[in-house]
TrEMBL record:
One of its GO terms (molecular function) is nucleobase-containing compound kinase activity. The keyword DNA-binding does not apply. This is Adenylate kinase active site lid domain-containing protein. Keywords: Kinase, Nucleotide-binding, Transferase. HAMAP family: Adenylate_kinase_Adk (MF_00235). The keyword Transferase applies. The lineage of its organism: unclassified sequences, metagenomes, ecological metagenomes. One of its GO terms (biological process) is nucleobase-containing compound metabolic process. InterPro entries: Adenylat/UMP-CMP_kin (IPR000850), Adenylat_kinase_CS (IPR033690), P-loop_NTPase (IPR027417). PROSITE patterns: ADENYLATE_KINASE.
Amino acid sequence: MLNIVLFGPPGSGKGTQSEKIIEKYGLTHFSTGDMLRAELDAETELGLQAKSIMEKGELVSDEIIMGMIRNKISSESDSKGFIFDGFPRTTAQAEGLDKLLAELGMKIDVMLGLEVDRQELIDRLLKRGKDHGRADDNLETIENRIKVYKDQTSPVMGYYESQGKYRGVEGVGSIDDIFGRLSGIIESL
Ligand code: ADP
């Protein structure tokens, strides 16, 4: 099994690189952002609760997120491995994930970090907002998402670093070049 956390600020390319990693290594995708957007579209109770939080760029509660992950993991026991994208986003989520995986006799092998500077992130997300109309891709929400990332999410990097699992790559360049950097690390594991 190969279990990866793909890490990086909003707009760093986690979704794009996840797709390529999944295609090449046959992993199961866990994107908490996609899972929440599916709940929103289906207008579930959970989706209704999450909507205003996501529109502001704040974090949905650890309890809701851990519940979604727990449900999905238990139905994926035959998988070749997991890629976590946009999760864990707080140290509490990282601890929750370690505990959940340990219960199942599994562990995280590596955290791959996409490193991109702030102005590039803002430019990419504004462009995505124009092209795809995602409600949270407007300047005010983008700036808050980056702040929330800095304050609440970046400590998660230290959590994996202290376990010797963090590997950062330059997240700027062509999609294939960045994928080459990531697969180089995966294959060296
Ligand atoms: P991005 O990384 O591009 O900002 P995502 O699609 O990963 O976007 O997440 C969109 C929003 O969904 C976040 O701003 C947050 O409100 C919510 N969200 C997604 N994943 C989590 C998580 N693990 N914990 C808390 N909130 C989350």
